[in-house]
């Protein structure tokens, strides 16, 4: 019998809720030359029955059992039983995208690298699917045959499960997991250092579950035993850096200071009294290993936590931790009695602790402009922007704060009008409204491709400048045609709001369902000689021909000659129920591009203000948009979907509606709140009305108020299947957030949340 090329090691312990979904995602891989070694680490629940079931149905799965020893030893056991040329690891509550191993094995076959590593997504029922924070920078781009010394951000790639290792490489360096939690990092960093080359893959190859119950190892991060293992793991990594990669020390030390040391400080909020002393010892152990210059870069609050730890002041550490947990880090500062240009933070311990008062002095870098856009809309004459601005830590009010805004494009700077808006909370940032006239946008230089909003704030003696940031709630802002160009608000990589000036790009102006086809209409630059529309997806491109005809161009409306086009796409080419790219949402996002020879350009959505949905059996194809207003097709299960939201004039009633499709259960739609540290929840059912084409719910928001009613998520419960969070049409997200009584309706990864401020 020929050995499989890929061995997948899956340790498990008491995961009966999740293991079947995990193993199903493995069974559906497009790369099928693999074996799965299931290591039962002494499970006490029914998860072992699910494992046996898979083994009986699929000869590629086999079960190994042992007494409970922990995740690291269980992985080592699985490795000893693995027979493949390649080796990978999966945690039993996570999911693997269908094409993940095909992508990584193909990459290793092409480059002969020691390992391939890819991007990751976090997911759960409440917050949907989103980018994993720790993987966003190391895997921002495809980098075949690179190395941690050439791409240092790989040094903070801590997890083992987003990788495929060459087995000869694994055996050559005798990698083995220690018998502690956080066992990944010492192995992954050493593998990055010892590798000949590493393939970095920007596509998500792993879906990392975040349980509502907080039961996973990383979600038990404030428990003392968890923290002790975390520090031991960090010490192993620091020893490795000292011996093999001193040039990586500043990056990794900074990562430990910002992540692990802060986590120890946070643990003082909930720690038992008898754990306070041991926690201080842990904090000192870790901080004593970190470079002084890295600790010197910490914020004032983090520095206070560090100094309190060195002083052994457990009372102050507990006060600081609770202060952080209650969200008070932006507390206003006061002017120093010694000098009017100095400010003291009002953090706990300023006058009643052993720490010297100068530690509470705020450096200039922390007195920075902080802004956010809370609403954005187009009128016939203006782009109206509402938002907030302040100098961090300084109380802002109309009596002591001056705010100026300007539209900036290259060296051109034009003042914008500013209206200050009343605030319900005097301690909140300064709220403002500004209007950017369309005539100013139309008059921007023809060579420019973007503009931005400059912010100038003066509070008392402190004067700061910066750029207007869009904030976390403005996810899908609407654009508009202004003169010869399309103006699209968007977020820059550094978190600023930019106004992108787009011209001479393909546009979608209409979409409709025509029998078994989707018909698209739009405009395309006349200069393109042989344009072809291609829909990219992991399974391969779909190519569509374009019918085009010349149209007259109004010079005031278009800067280049444009042709009209029409394209027809068969739904049979778009729907693939067994082959979704997203293993949690069970859907695929197809990104159309217009190809002309070697050139390829995204298609901008200019003619739609809501999605076009085409239900086909149990699947739905929707014409949608990206955050940057580019055309997307989403192929997904037929489920409850929202495309309309209204509120009553008094804000007491919220009405939510969407299209109704055959075979979808609409009888139970509910606001759901998960209990702390639990998968259990409380439901507040909505009153649902149905007609032939639409479903509608109404909610009296007063029924959701209460001491703990801080976050409700809209769910659909089909009764015979697993409840799921209701997803909103991407066009609708451009009109959120929306204040509703004491709540703000916000989108989180496309899922609707009612949250208290």
Structure, described:
There is one protein chain. This protein is of the alpha+beta class and 757 residues long. It has 5 domains: 6-209, Spore Coat Polysaccharide Biosynthesis Protein SpsA, Chain A; 221-325; 369-500, Immunoglobulin-like (Sandwich); 507-637, Immunoglobulin-like; 641-756, Immunoglobulin-like (Sandwich). 20% of the residues lie in helices and 36% in strands. The chain contains 14 helices and 47 strands. The strands form 9 sheets. Strands 1, 2, 3, 4, 5, 6, 7, 8 and 9 form a 9-stranded mixed beta sheet that branches. Strands 14, 15, 18, 19, 20, 21 and 22 form a 7-stranded antiparallel beta sheet that branches. Strands 25, 26, 29, 30, 32, 33 and 34 form a 7-stranded antiparallel beta sheet that branches. A hairpin with a 2-residue loop joins strand 18 and strand 19. Helix 6 packs parallel to helix 7 (224-244), helix 7 packs antiparallel against helix 8 and helix 8 (249-267) packs antiparallel against helix 9 (276-287). The longest helix has 21 residues, at 224-244. The model is unreliable at 213-219 (pLDDT under 50).
